[in-house]
Amino acid sequence: DQGSQNILFSFDPDLLKFKPIERANFYAAVRQFDRALDEYDRALTDPKFAEASPREWTLGAKKSLAIAVRVKRNPSLALELVSRIIDAKTSPEMTKEAASVWRQSIKEWRNAGSPKPTLVEGKRLVLKAQALSSATHSNDGGLVYYLRASTIFHELLRGAKTNPGYAEALYYAGMAGEGLKEINLWTFDEAYYEACVRFKPHSDISKKCYSRFEALQLFIGKYYADEQFAPSIEVKKKLAELKTLAY
Hints:
By secondary structure, this protein is an all-alpha fold. The protein is 67% helix and 0% strand.
């Protein structure tokens, strides 16, 4: 929600040959969020697309919801999008189940208004997100809470680094980033953990941040599916450097 949005290009990109979902992803990437929402709407209201590409359809649904929650901060828009997901006849049942959970989360958000962004509130949202994700088959139940938590931590991290809890905000921003990894619009979980270690070395919070960073590099990151994976020299060097700083 921060930085430039909806800037007009000096040229009009030729996207006519692209599918609506591809155009939507393009506009989201270049921060033309209003046009992205229009294209996501075209894609998500196409029953043939939902039936032929259920995973891509679901990912598009989550990205459109991310714009409504994270960029627009608009619970009414988010509820409208979720209703479309639930009402779509050809959407996957797993997605509908998650969307029902999202709807309850959004209603809670709407009723709560706009509380002051605090570390306590951000941590509360992350814990609720983790609990909901564990309770749903798709692990997507906590999406709205993760998005709201991400908003709070970004607000906190814009402040002075002398603020108490700055390192802890980095740690929980990484946790929220892990929960939002699939939509991959603003998630830099590894960077948050590394920044945490470098910001407050030789501390309890830096040890926690290093542990998460190490896990992402070796066990649950992009190499997880490869049983034969051996860390590169660069990865080993980075891990050794950060471990020394953390401990």
